[in-house]
Amino acid sequence: MKKTLFFLACILLFSCKDSKDRSLMEIPVDIGQNISLPLSTITEEIKAIELELTDESLINPDRILRVLLTENNVIIAERTQILVFSMDGKFIRSVGSRGQGPGEFTGIRNLAIDTKNMLLSVITSSSKLICYDLLDGNYVKEASIASNITIKDIIYINNELLVIGEQVPRSDSKGLYHHSAVYKLNNDFQIIDSCTIRDTYFEKPVMYMSRHENFILQGNGVIYTYYSDIYFNEQIPLETVLRDTLYSMKDNRLIPELKLKYKDDGIDGYGNKYIQLFNVYRSSRYAFAFYHNDNRKNFYHFCYDMKTGKGYNMQDGYTDDFNNIEKRISIRPLNSNTELFYYWHTHMSPDDLEEPNPTLYIGKLKN
User: Fold this and answer.
1) Among residues 166, 275, 307, 315, which one has the fewest Cβ atoms lying within 10 Å of its Cβ?
2) With pLDDT > 90 as the criterion, what percentage of the chain qualifies?
3) Residue whose C-alpha is closest to residue 329's, from 31, 29, 36
4) What is this structure's pTM?
5) Assigned CATH topology for domain 21-365
6) pLDDT at 33 (0 to 100)
7) What φ, ψ does residue 343 adopt, rounded to 5°?
8) DSSP 8-state assignment for residue 2
9) Which long-range contacts (CB under 8 A, 24 or more apart) does 244-249 make?
10) Which residues pair with 287 in a beta bridge?
11) d(CA 332, CA 214)
């Protein structure tokens, strides 16, 4: 019965067609707007964590993949390393190492925390799942999910492990396509259930890319899911559709939560999709998006205040008026709690003989 409910829920969640339910919130996005939004407008407080620089804890800010928080630690993941710091920024340890042996990885795609078993679970670039002890960082176990599936995201929800992945490429009578699906794994990391997200057809194989691979998040007791499909190398899907809807899972049901309304649904007069959405998520009060506007050749952040009904469209990011950072910053949601977000910035002083590690900022949104 549980397997059936999971399968049906996934079908509802990942339907390619947007719901016509009148209760679905439509949020207009003014793509012509470009304002400066101070973080103080939407943020209650911000905590700064100066990350200690040692020979073993050097961080490249351009390569930060994801930040995870536990009660006592901050975990910083880059594409090729995982570093653990205390909440006051002291370096504690690295986790795992580069290589192809047990407990080693050539690259990191995503990671999540299993609080029930106190494990740090890491999806590698080869879609191998490696688990480390969350307390001491030691290698515990690993498994290969499937050689033909590229895992995009991983999360533990109610002590159950869900991953999103793609099989590239597949083919049928209609041609080549990417098959994306959500997979449910057991404690041995074997697939025990799956359902199709969508099949996207192309004229020839393509490369998938997403700058913000935050596809499954939790916030205010609700699970939110948005799965984008952004393709490069000038390969255009045969089906031109803007994926613009965020979904939520409530009471064992997955339902459309909100829809971003772009001019002409992001399709120009020639039938080309000029809005490329990378991420959509929400907190209890705000809805957020990160997208690229091909017509303007720029990346934009969008924030919508559901309490006041006001939207903010910003090129290159937000203004940090708490810490007086001159450069606009890009905020990322905390996957386990969308009421929190994080960003980082490297502060240089005249006395610095070498570039310090970036300072990590944790913000709490207003409600």
Assistant:
1) 307
2) 51
3) 36
4) 0.87
5) Neuraminidase (2.120.10)
6) 95
7) -160, 175
8) H
9) 244/18, 244/277, 244/280, 245/18, 245/19, 245/24, 245/280, 246/280, 246/281, 246/282, 246/287, 247/13, 247/14, 248/222, 248/223, 248/224, 249/9, 249/13, 249/222, 249/223, 249/224, 249/225
10) 282, 304
11) 9
Tens of pLDDT, residue by residue over 262-311, are 999 998 888 888 898 999 999 999 999 999 998 888 999 999 999 999 99
Tell me if 134 sits within 8 A of 127, measured CB to CB.
no
pLDDT tens for each residue of 219-273: 877 878 788 766 554 455 666 788 899 987 665 556 789 999 999 999 888 888 8
What are phi and psi for residue 54, nearest 5 degrees? Answer: -130, 180
Provide the token pair at 205.
């194989």
Residue 4 has pLDDT above 50, yes or no: no
CB 225 within 8 A of CB 249: yes
Looking up tokens 């809805």 gives 287
- Of residues 1 and 26, the one with the higher pLDDT is 26
Token output for 196: 């199709």
> Of the candidates 221, 216, 240, 218, which has an alpha carbon nearest to the alpha carbon of residue 229?
240
